[in-house]
Amino acid sequence: MTTVRCKLTIAFPPDLEDDIVECLLELPEDVGGFSVVSAEGHGHGFARASVRERVRGRVARRLLYAILEHERLPTVLERLRGTVRNPSVAYWVEPVIDFGRLTS
Fold first, then answer.
1. What is the pTM of this model?
2. Rounded average pLDDT over 15-29
3. CB atoms within 10 A of CB 61
């Protein structure tokens, strides 16, 4: 049976990084590795932006990327929803065609 994987991306304000990372690390089954990078969000949703962010025209964000088995996705999202209740957090899921290491 082939393992179906997906890429989960979560965009969130920097002050939520510890909560989101801890939530994933505390899951009963290991999510596997993930990466968090700094980013800036652009768009029309500036209602919650600080004055500085409104002047700059962009908001500070973190992006978390995780590759996981698709069947684990509902559990991970349910846990995140229960832990991080913030309307500024967005996520999306993309299919992963292939995943591996360049060396054995």
1. 0.84
2. 92
3. 20
